[in-house]
């Protein structure tokens, strides 16, 4: 097969490790991947906007909050904000700059989420950058089955990929929506699988009280925690979206308040599509996004002072011919970078995404995804949603794309490593240059020999052989190589360890809540 | 067909234009591309190395030049450098920091090359960034014919692509080596086609006196210039490579001196492959590259004070399993960025490349190419070689890849446009946000209507339709879409205008030089 480079163990590589429980050695499948780490982004962010530009967007957002107002379709939120001194007219809430900035200042600039396996704790904020699996597509696509609706088996496959790859730090939303599970109990089945197939940080959809409470309870059980222990520190998180323009709906705010009051993080991510739900100008769309995001953050900080929050960006542009969203565009990149500047201005962790418009994992998918992932790097993003597996503007999750994206994520992690830009005397290597002189080569010199096993990034899905070797071995293209890796991972998957009593308690909880009917489905 | 988005004229788009002579309207083929412009990179470069790191590399390079020395396999160069006060021992030349820095300071930080069509003048240096077609692969590959040796017809096809795309600013080296033309006269036939099929800046290979002199003469004729006019300003350029480690060969230096003395620019690009011809550490490989580059630049500035030069980077790493070069890696990105820091330290224009390791234009090709092109942006590169069409580490030129890369180049050009990050009151758009309020959308508002035709990037090879529309239309993947665009361009190509007397003079020159036997092939 073509990707022996990706599937053959290379015992000499010191970057091996961190794979325990991930791959069964007996079957011959083995993927050399990077060990688990929380990447730290050493680069100065790209700042397209100057100080005056940041002020212009900030003042614009404050103008929106003070003079136009945000609609909260949630009575509890209205009551809280009225109590806080905001001007509440029906669902419309107007808040002054002083109040907003006082509330925003309460938010920590950085926090750590500790899932049931404390070795998988993630730090959100500062220069840290973590990657989340693709979340919420209704469909999946793979090279053999094409596009089809999401189902539970496919959901589990993606959970296995999420657990397997060390460069995926968080098991976010459902990689595909398993429509073969009734919505009233879907969250119970999904969370049971997520909590047993992975030991990484979990997410709760803020889609109704029961769902949120069930997920918090299941995460508490999986961690073997008391209520007090759960409440004492971040163990999971939610992400909420506004309904742009200028609106927050009931269930998202309800869920956010529930988590915030128990000390669990809330990422607030408006979806401001320039030219559709937001101004056609990128800084206008960012201004609207910031206003919507800060409104929710102010609410949460008043209700639960100091609760961990982050601000998200999902600002992109439409295709002006069709009105459909386009992702991974130049405009998307700039909006992400600008939002990063604002996030630092407010001292808030930033979420962005790894996104594309393409329908299949071909060349277009990767130039668009590269654009969005490098924009995440350049913006100083702390949490990258949809970092692996996303296609068709979020309507498809693809296992091949998941594997390909993990290649790019690993390259970003390697790019962050100081070894790639160190300038110690050993790196400048004058003694090796003297030794080799003008007529030798560096393969054999001591300086190379001491370093070659981990001097460079080792790819997983890339084929670096020449054309003839690649062709003689079947001319296997990237999606097929990625497919074989995906099958190898899923077919050889071994779940992380879990105490049997905890597994039983989780199963009992799911059974009891199913018997009670799960969650209402009429919201 | 799938790419009607790319081939249908959209008359409303104000970015139309600059296409005169590029596409025959009568056939129905039309590609909406960006107009010609010299992109200006507004971003602050990414600087992985701090001031001390820049000094460490600089001092390392100076140590190499002063204590190890560079071999010049060119007697004229040795004579010149001896005259300049360098210590010459056999072919080895050692030069002190003061001399090197004095010579480097003679080089202009920026210069303009004016080809036969002055509208196609390119500025090299400062924040300008220009793109050069793929140069020098021995083979071509397309989706229907696979990999095959380069030939003259394919060479001409690539020249047509080079001329057609406004985002390709320079007709660099041969996109494929036309092996069906005898090497003694190949440069004559190739340059005739290059100078008649395109009106963009040309390049001469520094591969022997006759080739260099012929190309200069042909560029002079094509521009309708006297010798004095040709010598008065840059009209073309050459690129030379060192023979790493620590060596410059005869023909490259010979050609460089010939061009420099006639005021024509020389880009000096060492090929320092970390772990093979250079230290396995990236800053070591960059240090060696800088030393080799500055040695040649010092020579040129002593021989022709103030002559336009640039420094190139071609530092990447090998695949440590095979020893073969790998491109578009994280290490490649850092080496490019670091070289950018050094280029600014010396005040020299920078050349880098758009490169990949992949064998076919699939997903891997585009994540690797995106890595290298974004590294070019982040490094402040002024001239991007191989910006469109490169595959298999430079062994293949592909027309489909050419079209795909032009999509990425256009996105970079759009990314540079201030409109993507402007923060004027009209951009912040508070009046539109007020007008639309919480219950409307932005499609119809005046702010959008006034801007929508050119608010966002319009793709050429991307398909932004949803999966079902794309599938119903044949499920055409990116390489096939790119292939159709390539055929449309080539089949409908109309060459730029050229005065008939000049064409005849060029043809006569080629005939005469062929009769004389062309260039010797024994070097």
Automatic annotation (TrEMBL), chains A, B:
Gene3D superfamilies for this protein: Trimethylamine methyltransferase-like (3.20.20.480)
The reply to whether Transferase figures as a keyword in the UniProt entry is yes
Recorded hits in Pfam families, A to Z, give: MTTB (PF06253)
* Known EC number: 2.1.1.-
List the residue ranges of the region (Disordered).
Answer: 1-29
Q: Report whether Methyltransferase shows up as a keyword of the record.
A: yes
Q: Which spans does this entry mark as compositional bias, Polar residues?
A: 1-10
Its keywords, alphabetically, are: Methyltransferase, Transferase
- BP GO annotations: methanogenesis; methylation
Give the Gene Ontology MF terms in alphabetical order: methyltransferase activity
Record's family? Belongs to the trimethylamine methyltransferase family.
Give the protein name, as stated in the record. Methyltransferase
The organism of origin for this protein: Pararhodobacter oceanensis
Lineage of the organism? Bacteria, Pseudomonadati, Pseudomonadota, Alphaproteobacteria, Rhodobacterales
